[in-house]
Amino acid sequence: MALDPQSVEAQSRLAVVLADRVLALRADSGAADLARGEVLVNQALAGSPCGWPAHFAKGHVLRAQKRWEEAVPEYEAALALNHNFGGAPICLAWCKLHAGSIEEVIPLAEKAIRLSPRDPAIGVCYNQIGTVHLLQSRTDDAIIWLEKARSAMPALPGHRGRLAAAYALKGETERAAAELAEARRFTGDDRFSSIARLKAFAGPWLGAPTTRALFEATYFAGLRKVGMLEE
User: Fold this and answer.
1) Can you tell me whether residue 88 is helix, strand or coil?
2) What does the alpha-carbon distance between residue 165 and residue 162 come to, in Å, rounded to a whole number?
3) How many angstroms from the chain centroid is the CA of residue 8?
4) Taking the complete model, does pTM exceed 0.85, yes or no?
5) What's the average model confidence in pLDDT over 82-91?
6) What does the pLDDT read at residue 28?
7) How many CB atoms lie within 10 A of CB 204?
8) I need a labelling partner for 100 at 20 to 30 A (CA). Which of 16, 92, 107, 212 fits?
9) In the chain, alpha helices (H)
10) How confident is the prediction for the chain on average, in pLDDT?
11) Is the pLDDT of residue 79 over 90?
């Protein structure tokens, strides 16, 4: 950006990084990051209205603003303009999950796997598939996919937290406790210390009321079974 302030690619990539920091819940300056991201996205779209990076960046900023339904057409435009871009269906899958269209998540995750089978972040796709199975009470299938997610990306606490819930729902309490302990070890904060803390941390990102209800009936129910306290 310093060398070429008009670079659409730089504008788009920087907007994505700023949104990613918010999506990862690592930013103390989330509002400022998203405000800057919006400016960059507008500049990128003005410079390249038919460029897939600008549309992907806009979708990313909208998703970080929890405007999931508005983000969908931007990610779809990015994928239409670049059919081989595996990142778009991954992000679309999250938007569909948060917006309540849970039945559309697995096909999108499977598409991302087909497009980029050696992606170092492929565990995210496995996690998406496992999460849908978990939310729809297909616990055996959930465990299979969440174990794949854990193996692919072992340091991600979210994968381990969902696997802990699935194990607990299956009645495998020792394995559930071990995964919950690992989730706590990898977080670096206290989000897995109680149901209340986890909801305060992640609750706003669970999405539409229908999706939140499914998380309550499965994910949080599993964590309660493994002994996570309410407060």
Assistant:
1) helix
2) 5
3) 25
4) yes
5) 95
6) 65
7) 11
8) 16
9) 8-23, 30-47, 52-64, 68-81, 87-99, 105-115, 122-135, 139-152, 157-170, 173-187, 195-202, 209-215, 221-225
10) 95
11) yes
Domains of the chain: 1-85 (1.25.40), 117-231 (1.25.40.10)
* Token pair belonging to 216: 């309550």
Residues 11 and 1: beta-carbon distance below 8 Å: yes
Amino acid, res. 149:
A
CA atoms within 13 A on the CB side of 87: 15
Task: Give the separation between CA 105 and CA 97, rounded to whole angstroms.
Answer: 6
For every residue of 164-209, DSSP letters joined together read HHHHHHHT-HHHHHHHHHHHHHHHSSSGGG-HHHHHHHHGGGS-SH
Q: Helix, strand, or coil here: 36?
A: helix
Rg (CA), the chain: 18
